[in-house]
Every structure is written in C-alpha cells, then in structure tokens.
C-alpha cells in the first residue's frame, strides 16, 4: 500500500460511556483531519494506554451496535472491547465502514439474500459487491496521529493485522474476542471462520 500523508488530531473531548447492562467508563473521543477516505472515523481512548496498547478496529454496525441485532456479533464485541481496552489501556477505533464497507442499504439487501440461503459473502457477491471492501489506511493514520506504532490487536480477523503491518504499524499479538452466538448468527459466524479464517472455535458454533 502506498504511503499516505499524516493525519492530524482535530478535537478531543471527554465522554462518559454507559451501556445497557449498566457498565460505564469515561473515554476520550478523538476526531481527525486528513484521513485518506474522508470519513468521520473516531478514536475512543480508554484507560491509560502504555507503550503497547490494546487496540480494536471496530467497523460501524448500526443494526448490531445500536439496535441490538442478533444477526451478527458486532454489538457484543463492541461492549466487550470497551471494557477489555479500558482495563488495560488502549484505543478503540470506531470506523464508518458499515457492512464490511458496502454501506447500510447494501447490507440490508444482503440480509434478504441470506434469508434465501446465501451466506454473508455469497450474498455480497450476488449483489456485485466485494466480500470485504474495508481498507484500514485511515485506521493506520489515526493510530500514528495518536503516537501508536506498536500494539496488540483485539480481533479475530487476520486481514486487519495484515493490513496494519503493510501500513507500517507493528502488530505484536492478535488477541481473539469472545464468541457471541445466537440462534440467528451461527451461519454468519461459521462463514467468517471457513471463508476468511477468523479465529473463532468452530466447536462453539455447532
């Protein structure tokens, strides 16, 4: 990937976070100038980040993060990540990449195709869209602006670590998230394991 110009911090504001289960934590939300894709991504700084902070790249999921959809594991992953990062110190990058980068309407169209039997990746392909359109150049810019060049990555997705390394970020370790299964998302999670090598134990997805 080609070298991108540096991003700069635009603002930083303290925000108390409150979750539906009663968990609460104070965070610093950081916005940026100069991100490569022009999107309004936000860094959520939690705890006291050390020299090797725990970092998660969390792609926006309106249905899961806001409405609690059981068709994915995004909402529980977000909740888990905030607490784990706050305990250790680190950063959650909230990236405006709905539907693995295809957008909300396309994601809902893909849901309809999944109801007809396609898996999440085949549904994207049937719509003429890539399986995963996400590019983490802006994420690398955000991390560098925050002074983070070495991290432990909280993720089951090997592509995130590979892209960050290509973009000049040292990923010391990839730390798996929990497994959050529902009756509605088991096929989705199995597809992530089988097609894009996510580190989720298949035995728990039976």
TrEMBL record:
Task: Give any GO molecular function from the UniProt entry.
Answer: GTP cyclohydrolase II activity
Catalytic function, reaction form: GTP + 4 H2O = 2,5-diamino-6-hydroxy-4-(5-phosphoribosylamino)-pyrimidine + formate + 2 phosphate + 3 H(+)
Which residues hold GTP? 56-60, 77, 98-100, 120, 155, 160
The active site annotation covers: 132, 134
List the cofactors: Zn(2+)
Q: Which residues take part in binding Zn(2+)?
A: 61, 72, 74
> How cofactor binds (record note)?
Binds 1 zinc ion per subunit.
Gene3D superfamilies in the record, alphabetically? Answer: GTP cyclohydrolase II
User: Which domain of life, per UniProt?
Assistant: Bacteria
Top-level enzyme category: hydrolase
Keyword match Hydrolase = yes
Give the pathway annotation: Cofactor biosynthesis; riboflavin biosynthesis; 5-amino-6-(D-ribitylamino)uracil from GTP: step 1/4
Q: Which UniProt key words apply to this protein? A: GTP-binding, Hydrolase, Metal-binding, Nucleotide-binding, Riboflavin biosynthesis, Zinc
EC numbers, comma separated = 3.5.4.25
Per its UniProt record, what NCBIfam families does this chain match?
PRK00393.1
What this protein is reported to do is described as:
Catalyzes the conversion of GTP to 2,5-diamino-6-ribosylamino-4(3H)-pyrimidinone 5'-phosphate (DARP), formate and pyrophosphate.
Q: What is this protein called?
A: GTP cyclohydrolase-2
Species annotation: Streptomyces fuscus
């Amino acid at each position: 990937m080609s070298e991108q110009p540096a991003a700069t911090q635009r603002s930083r504001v303290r925000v108390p976070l409150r979750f539906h289960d009663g968990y609460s934590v104070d965070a610093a939300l950081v916005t940026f100038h100069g991100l490569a894709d022009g999107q309004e991504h936000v860094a959520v700084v939690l705890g006291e980040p050390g020299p090797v902070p725990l970092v998660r790249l969390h792609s926006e999921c309106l249905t899961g993060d806001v409405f609690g959809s059981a068709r994915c594991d995004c909402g529980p992953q977000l909740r888990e990540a905030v607490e784990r990062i706050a305990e250790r110190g680190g950063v959650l990058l909230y990236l405006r990449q709905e539907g693995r980068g295809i957008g909300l309407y396309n994601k809902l169209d893909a849901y309809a195709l999944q109801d007809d039997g396609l898996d999440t990746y085949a549904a994207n392909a049937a719509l003429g869209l890539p399986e995963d359109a996400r590019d983490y150049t802006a994420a690398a810019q955000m991390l560098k602006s925050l002074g983070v060049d070495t991290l432990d990555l909280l993720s089951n997705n090997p592509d995130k670590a590979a892209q960050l390394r290509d973009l000049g970020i040292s990923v010391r370790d990839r730390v798996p998230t929990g497994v959050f299964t529902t009756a509605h998302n088991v096929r989705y999670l199995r597809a992530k394991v089988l097609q894009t090598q996510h580190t989720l134990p298949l035995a728990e997805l039976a």
